[in-house]
Amino acid sequence: MSQTLANNTKAQLLDKLNQRIPSSRLITDNTRRLAYGTDASFYRLIPEMVVQADDLDDVIFIINTCVEMK
User: Tell me, what's the pLDDT at 4?
Assistant: First the structure.
């Protein structure tokens, strides 16, 4: 997959998630993503995006949105 296509897909996903999830709970900046990719192990995987769900309905919406984008 080309980088441009990947960026377009991420932008589309962000737009769809932003319909229900406030932008304050959609983490895309490098520094905060780096913090979420660090734990006590030797491995560091930086997520493309972090979505903070408040409740089960948010989780269901997030999963359904990702499935639709598949």
Answer: 59
